[in-house]
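Form 12-C: Joint structure prediction
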Amino acid sequence: NAGVTQTPKFQVLKTGQSMTLQCAQDMNHEYMSWYRQDPGMGLRLIHYSVGAGITDQGEVPNGYNVSRSTTEDFPLRLLSAAPSQTSVYFCASSFFDPGGVTEAFFGQGTRLTVV
Amino acid sequence: DAKTTQPNSMESNEEEPVHLPCNHSTISGTDYIHWYRQLPSQGPEYVIHGLTSNVNNRMASLAIAEDRKSSTLILHRATLRDAAVYYCIPPKTGANNLFFGTGTRLTVIP
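Section 2 - Result
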């Protein structure tokens, strides 16, 4: 199993450009999420999805869009990149467990720089 | 939401046990305590979780205080590969969302 795969690993954007960060998982997990990690800080939740067709906002959703058309894929879109979005982005997936017991699997991250 | 408090950093000699503390005094009665770690330049990885009693797995042990206001992650023999940032995370009840603080940076000295 590949687990959680993120592409690209590195990206440099100019301010105002748009791009999509890709995330795919092969574990048939219902729950997928996106986090960003700024230098010296912990991860912060951007958006999450509990299944195909269902998405919701996390702590820091502004400037990002998501959609979930399949169980496997959960892309993150930046419509107009800003320098404040320079960060490392992590995608995670897990079985949906309302009791909060499940284990999350993370991708290797996408390092994004906006100039 | 439950909050956690961890030391910013800790050091350990290689092959010695390490006890990483976490305070979570506002945790609710049904919140599980999860620990993740993040190796350099990698995504976080699950370590262990527990609710009320002590838990063991191949990576670590988790000791939970009787009042559940604190817990301790125990690495029985630290190796250089254990150098990482360790996060103590009490998830919100009823959700998969993980709320990360700044964690404890563990340095393992050869």
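Section 3 - Comments
The beta strands of chain B are 9-13, 18-23, 33-38, 45-50, 55-56, 61-64, 70-75, 84-89, 104-109. Residues 2 and 65 of chain B are 16 Å apart (CA to CA).
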